[in-house]
Backbone:
């Protein structure tokens, strides 16, 4: 099963076509039921279809395409991409076809299938996520502008509503498909990610057919990262992934486990594991031509375990393979012939970590200021949870929240944070401080019938804290399923005087709907948009997103502002508020009052 590699191997050619093959099947990603439910939530019905079909759609589409491409041509990166891959005439024809397809009822399977096909086509060319959504929001804006040509009034009409909702449904289908794929694959190597790989291993265990899992860890990768930078390291990982994928049989599997570690599943009973490992090892013997005239070299260590003899559940099987890999690296061998069973395996247990922190009162709340971009006055503070470990170290949410995302401890943690916030605000009031605090609410909070009574009890215990002093930030993921109870809870809280903000705006596929369906008084632009503000493409996309948000007259906060220069540029583009290290790192509660008193002196003039 050997495989010969040449220095001119096509996988190492930066000009070669390395697009990942995607499959268009509306049932594959499970979006059909979600689309039908989403359309129902929007209230899309026969009347809406009639209103849409009655529009002079050919005229609108022609004008929208012209307007859209006039904007695209102003972005050198996108203009160069189109000219390199195709022609404007071809792209115009494709966009025209897409707009014409919007005449189809979005609840029909053929319409869903078409939107999925378009979405995966974009994804295979690297067009997805924030860039895709910002571009589609820009297209939607131009369609709405084109439909208003010659209209004397500017109020939102029945025709506007039909166009808006039809295109939002289309965006939902395309974004949901992309999210379903990208959530299961590693963005760098396009290999299945860890979660998807574990899911497939569990499926194969259920089938009862023997297979072997192989951990592979690169040797010599860290020095490449340190000396040549992470960009070069990323390219090395991509080439390794491509070479190894070529080595495998069709029934085998390879996923990226994390960092420079991969997991291979050998499912062919006739394939020798030692031969496969030798092939994977040999694939790395040819230097990797990433830097001109300076080939790089890496090797790999391997450790494996057999199902079912080495483990009948996922955790045990992977522990055996991981310990075998660790022993191989310790012995400086490429692989070990026999798996090593751990006598005792200790893994970081995020659930136990949070549970212990709650019981031992080690949950802490820090506060980060949000300021108005133009007046430089403090708008509000966001409450950010930290956990103090038994070692005294403060752990950030990314280190423990993923472990409890689907666990009831998340609700308990949110309750503790809310209680601490009420306590801190009350204490600040005793020192003459007045202001607003933003608190994150999870999907569990919004669906908990006891939330309202819990808040009432906190107000009773700390009566100086009023509802209008609190803003609840809700993630888009909290709004994707079963919207009715969420809308009811949000509506009741809004009537009681609480404010609501939509967090990580633009990262989900129904932000626009939420801005119309819920009493959102603030949107927070996700940090991944803000981080790319200095590039031409990034600034264009950010401005397009902000322009669309401004049409709905909702204030915006830019997350992750790291310099005053960046903040001022965002203010010129219409951002209402800043939040980030350029203003302040998150502060413990006892520093908030003094920091705010000295804030005016610390903020430089324009």
Residues:
């Amino acid at each position: 099963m050997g495989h010969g590699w040449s220095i001119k191997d096509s996988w190492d050619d930066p000009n070669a076509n390395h697009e990942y093959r995607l499959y268009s099947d509306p049932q594959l990603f499970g979006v059909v039921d979600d689309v039908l439910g989403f359309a129902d939530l929007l209230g899309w019905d026969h009347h809406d279809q009639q209103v849409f079909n009655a529009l002079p759609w050919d005229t609108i589409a022609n004008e929208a395409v012209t307007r859209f491409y006039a904007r695209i041509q102003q972005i050198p990166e996108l203009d160069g991409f189109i000219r390199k891959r195709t022609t404007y005439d071809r792209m115009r024809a494709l966009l025209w076809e897409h707009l014409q397809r919007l005449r189809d009822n979005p609840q029909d399977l053929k319409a869903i299938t078409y939107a999925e096909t378009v979405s995966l086509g974009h994804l295979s060319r690297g067009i997805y996520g924030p860039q895709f959504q910002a571009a589609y929001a820009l297209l939607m804006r131009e369609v709405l502008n084109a439909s208003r040509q010659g209209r004397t009034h500017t109020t939102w009409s029945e025709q506007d509503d039909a166009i808006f909702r039809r295109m939002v449904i289309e965006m939902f289908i395309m974004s949901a498909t992309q999210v379903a794929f990208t959530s299961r694959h590693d963005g760098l190597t396009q290999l299945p990610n860890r979660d998807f790989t574990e899911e497939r291993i569990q499926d194969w265990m259920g089938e009862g057919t023997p297979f072997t899992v192989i951990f592979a860890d690169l040797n010599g990768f860290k020095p490449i990262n340190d000396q040549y930078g992470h960009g070069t390291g990323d390219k090395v990982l991509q080439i390794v992934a491509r070479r190894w994928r070529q080595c495998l049989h069709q029934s085998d599997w390879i996923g990226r486990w994390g960092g420079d570690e991969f997991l291979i599943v050998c499912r062919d009973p006739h394939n020798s594991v030692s031969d496969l490992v030798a092939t994977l090892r040999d694939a790395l013997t040819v230097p990797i031509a990433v830097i001109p005239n300076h080939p790089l070299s890496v090797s790999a260590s391997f450790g494996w375990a057999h199902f079912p003899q080495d483990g009948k559940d996922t955790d045990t099987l992977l522990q055996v393979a991981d310990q075998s890999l660790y022993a191989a690296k310790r012995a400086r061998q490429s692989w070990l012939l026999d798996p090593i069973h751990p006598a005792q395996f200790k893994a970081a247990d995020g659930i136990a970590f949070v549970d212990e922190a709650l019981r031992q009162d080690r949950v802490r709340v820090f506060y980060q200021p949000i300021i108005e971009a133009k007046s430089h006055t403090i708008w509000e503070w966001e409450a950010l949870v930290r956990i103090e470990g038994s070692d005294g170290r403060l752990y950030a949410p990314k280190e423990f929240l993923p472990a409890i995302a689907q666990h009831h401890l998340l609700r308990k943690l949110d309750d503790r944070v809310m209680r601490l916030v009420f306590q801190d605000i009350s204490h600040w009031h005793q020192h003459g401080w007045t202001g607003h605090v933003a608190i994150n609410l999870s999907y569990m909070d919004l669906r908990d019938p006891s939330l309202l009574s819990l808040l009432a009890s906190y107000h009773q215990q700390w009566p100086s804290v009023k509802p209008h002093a609190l803003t609840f930030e809700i993630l888009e993921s909290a709004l994707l399923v079963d919207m009715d109870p969420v809308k009811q809870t949000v509506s009741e809280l809004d009537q009681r005087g609480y404010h609501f903000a939509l967090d990580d705006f633009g990262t989900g596929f129904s932000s626009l709907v939420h801005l119309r369906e819920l009493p959102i008084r603030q949107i927070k632009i996700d940090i991944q948009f803000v981080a790319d503000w200095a590039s031409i493409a990034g600034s264009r996309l950010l401005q397009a997103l902000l322009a669309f948000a401004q049409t709905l007259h909702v204030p915006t906060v830019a997350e992750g502002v790291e310099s005053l220069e960046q903040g001022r540029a965002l203010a010129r583009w219409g951002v209402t508020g800043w939040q980030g290290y350029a203003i302040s790192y998150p502060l413990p509660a006892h520093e908030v009052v003094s920091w705010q008193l000295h804030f005016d002196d610390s903020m430089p003039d324009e």
Observations:
- The domain at 186-330 is CATH 3.30.70.270 (Alpha-Beta Plaits).
- The chain is about 50% helix and 15% strand.
- Confidence is low (pLDDT under 50) at residues 1-28, 331-348.
